[in-house]
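Q: Could you predict the 3D structure of Pyridine nucleotide-disulfide oxidoreductase?
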Amino acid sequence: METDVLVIGGSAGGILAALSVKKTYKDKKVTVIRMAERVMVPCGIPYIFGTLKDTSKNVIPDSMLTNAGVELVIDEVVSIDRPNKKVSTRKNGDISYKKLILATGSLPIVPTFIPGYDLDNVFTIKKDEEYLKFVQQKINEAEDVVVVGGGFIGVEMAE
Ligand SMILES: Cc1cc2nc3c(=O)[nH]c(=O)nc-3n(C[C@H](O)[C@H](O)[C@H](O)COP(=O)(O)OP(=O)(O)OC[C@H]3O[C@@H](n4cnc5c(N)ncnc54)[C@H](O)[C@@H]3O)c2cc1C
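A: Sure. Here are the predicted structure tokens for Pyridine nucleotide-disulfide oxidoreductase:
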């Protein structure tokens, strides 16, 4: 497969990068590749556990990309060959590009310096639907929940 612009990562950063490129360069083929089948609205994640009650109500529609003419590939990039301008994917072989945008985002820091961080029923807030479904199930079963961290995400989760 070949594309003019390849964006790795299909969440907030990747979507906006792809849409901006496509809007500016209408004739270019723009492709987004992301691992997840469905992308969570990051800002809505705490509300899955409260008002929304269901991860399916917190999905960024793929039509945001496809309606704008951006190609979408669900796969994982496993390596980047910059001299030859191509990436290797787990399922779809190689994708050649002219320009590459990395929008691979972030994962929560696991505080391994706190003894017990790896016990059962200790979770982080990942932007991953299947993981969030599992956390939701565990929270539904729990009587007491402790939130460690009082930034925006901690406060929203507590609420
Ligand atoms: C609970 C929570 C609440 C938040 N609330 C707010 C808020 O209210 N307001 C706000 O502004 N921000 C909020 N944020 C922050 C916001 O989520 C991030 O700023 C935003 O998600 C960053 O987007 P991103 O696209 O850079 O990265 P990410 O959202 O981390 O996305 C990275 C993407 O890259 C993909 N990817 C990674 N590696 C590969 C690979 N090798 N191959 C293919 N795909 C790959 C991932 O699957 C993912 O789709 C919140 C975050 C959380 C966790």
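Q: Anything worth pointing out?
A: Residues 8-14, 33-36, 39, 42-43, 45-46, 76-77, 103-106, 125, 127, 153 surround flavin-adenine dinucleotide (CB under 6 Å).
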